[in-house]
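chain below, 99 aa
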Amino acid sequence: MASKKIIWSVIKFKFPLDIYDTISYICIMKVTALIPDELVNDVKHFAGGKNLTESLITALEEWLSLKKVHALNDEISKKPLKFSKDFSAAKVREVNRKR
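prediction:
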């Protein structure tokens, strides 16, 4: 009950909402999209979600993760990592163990 009062005082909606509705209005975007049925069925099949929303969230999260990895790969290929001449895996392990 205390968390509900905090949200009310911060948001100050002019119409009554329960806690779930308040949080969903803040954190979730509702989208209407025209997506081919075949694509939707494939996403539901391969994502394995309980429903379409869960499947789409899974698919979008995986797609975004891949894009971030590709961006990082591009960045590293432009400016590769360089190890110092006295680099040693044993030294690194020793430093990590001391932490």
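Residues 1-30 form one domain. The CA atoms of residues 74 and 80 lie 10 Å apart.
thats it, cya
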